[in-house]
Design a protein that fits this description.
Layout: H1 10-13, H2 20-32, H3 43-51, E1 65-71, E2 82-88, E3 92-98, H4 108-116, E4 121-128, E5 151-154, H5 155-169, H6 174-200
Helix pairs in contact: 3-5, 5-6
């Protein structure tokens, strides 16, 4: 593999393998953005919606806006904070809380759910390497929010399947395609490392 260059991955070289903000949220948001530099318009966003099986959510993908690190106001017990990824068409919103190794904040998903309720319809996702639930404290210790109020998605299943589709879609754009392949390899590496850590402990 090394002789063929198959072990080379730019994300490993830059030491960004598990950087949630600067790599994963940034890259995922850019790919989802219909106005992204990838030049694929809303094709990647549509593929993402298909993988999540929420086509009936009817998000207007062509006019959707995608933001990373979206500031929703001063943080209190029930409001505010920073959304990792927000996708909206003004009437509907998809919020993704991205967790690789970072710990949950108290009331975090509660605050995000309260913000999402400002929209006509919303989807709240909790993204981890292997579809883990958020801690109870993230839902608010004294709130009525439950684990049914958000959906778990994973890098291992949903993001990998989505990136696979994006690789196919972008076959005629070499720069985009090669970056996606490198990112897919990184996700496979991260999910395998997670299992190795669990076995060691």
């Amino acid at each position: 593999d090394r002789a063929q260059g198959n072990s080379f991955n730019i994300f490993n070289v830059l030491g960004m393998t598990s950087n949630e903000v600067k790599l994963h949220s940034a890259l995922i948001a850019e790919l989802l953005n219909p106005d992204g530099s990838h030049g694929m318009k809303d094709k990647f966003l549509k593929a993402f919606i298909e993988v999540l099986d929420i086509s009936d959510f009817n998000l207007k993908t062509k006019s959707a806006s995608v933001e990373k690190e979206k500031n929703i106001g001063r943080k209190t017990q029930t409001t505010g904070g920073i959304l990792d990824i927000m996708i909206t068409d003004a009437h509907k919103v998809i919020i993704i809380e991205n967790k690789i190794y970072a710990s949950d904040q108290d009331n975090q998903l509660l605050r995000y759910k309260n913000f999402a309720q400002n929209f006509k319809e919303y989807k709240l996702y909790y993204l981890t390497l292997h579809c883990n639930n958020a801690k109870d404290s993230s839902l608010g210790l004294y709130s009525s929010m439950s684990h049914d109020d958000y959906e778990c998605i994973s890098y291992e299943k949903h993001i990998l399947e989505w990136i696979d589709r994006c690789v196919e879609i972008s076959s005629e754009k070499p720069l985009v395609n090669n970056t996606l392949i490198a990112y897919r390899n990184l996700i496979k590496q991260l999910t395998l490392e997670y299992f190795a850590r669990r076995i060691e402990h």
